[in-house]
Write a structure and sequence with these properties.
Length: about 325
């Protein structure tokens, strides 16, 4: 091999060695730099995690404090609710006796009144006392019912009875109030005898409440219609009037406790606003449904309820009544 060839081979060997050395130096430098970058990123990541954990711990403490406050607030609300229920029960129970005494003494005075006659001022005053005590007894009865509902003591006495006869009795009772306002009270009698398994007294409460409300809110000389029929083993009952109607927002609240409709300012507020709430509880206890339909203010309203004809089966609700022409 010539000197030139040896020089070239040596040069190539040196160049390759330098190239390889440069590669390894560069690789080591890059790896070291990458390692520093990774370690720095990991350090920042750990700091962020620690910061997030600290923030999360603070929020958890705040949340636990809020939960504890909510728990204490619920305890206080339950305590106040129990006090309210007991108060209503005590008021309703303890006032009944003096009211009965007032009614009894008033009745005696009316019988002993030698002048009698509806025009006598004493007789008129005594009649007003009787009416006032009757209204108060109704208010006390509502308080007793809502107290029993809230305490879980609101029981039903299910028996079979003829619904047609119950409607006749209720309509006859409410017809007196309808006549005073000149309201035409129309009952669409069902042609067949309907036997229903329910609590007759409680269902009569529902009928009196719905029919009484329609008569109260219907205008003087207005019209109230009563319908009832059967379908798919269910009883449907409805009361329609041409009164002030109910707005959409009012329909959402009308069955709430202590709520009183404010659509007709000409109707004086009476009672506690518990009647529809109690009616709803009664219907629910019969595994039924209750509701109201109204096209809006000034369009009248229709209150309805439905219950099974036979013994109620838990967790099954009958369908909403079909609209009649």
């Amino acid at each position: 091999m010539s000197m030139f060839e040896m020089f070239v081979s040596y040069s190539l060997l040196v160049a390759a060695s330098l190239s390889l050395l440069t590669y390894w130096i560069t690789r080591k430098f890059v790896l070291k730099k990458m390692n520093r970058t990774i370690m720095k990123a990991e350090h920042n990541y750990q700091q962020q995690i620690a910061s997030l954990q600290q923030q999360l711990s603070g929020k958890v403490n705040i949340l636990e404090g809020m939960v504890e406050k909510l728990r204490l607030s619920n305890q206080e609300l339950n305590r106040l609710n129990d006090i309210r229920s007991k108060f209503m029960s005590i008021v309703a129970h303890d006032l009944r006796q003096p009211l009965s005494s007032i009614q009894g003494f008033t009745s005696v005075l009316m019988m002993d009144n030698p002048q009698g006659g509806t025009g006598n001022s004493d007789q008129i005053a005594l009649n007003n006392i009787i009416k006032a005590t009757d209204n108060m007894n109704l208010l006390m009865a509502d308080l007793m019912d809502i107290s029993m509902i809230e305490s879980g003591k609101f029981k039903m006495d299910f028996k079979s009875f003829v619904f047609n006869a119950l409607v006749t009795d209720v309509v006859a009772l409410q017809a007196v109030n309808a006549q005073k306002k000149g309201i035409f009270l129309q009952t669409y009698e069902f042609p067949e005898e309907i036997t229903v398994y329910a609590d007759r007294f409680r269902i009569s409460q529902v009928l009196n409440n719905l029919l009484g409300n329609s008569i109260k809110f219907a205008p003087t000389g207005g019209r109230v219609e009563v319908r009832y029929y059967t379908q798919d083993e269910n009883l449907f009952f409805s009361v329609s009037d041409n009164g002030p109607g109910i707005s959409h927002g009012e329909k959402e609240k009308i069955f709430q406790k202590f709520h009183q409709a404010g659509n007709d300012r000409n109707v004086k507020k009476q009672g506690w606003g518990l009647g529809l709430s109690i009616a709803q509880e009664i219907v629910n206890a019969h595994n039924g449904a209750i509701g109201v339909e109204s096209a809006g203010l000034g369009q009248g309203s229709t209150f309805w309820f439905t219950i099974p004809l036979s013994a109620p089966v838990p967790d099954t609700l009958p369908p909403k009544p079909l609209e009649e022409a």
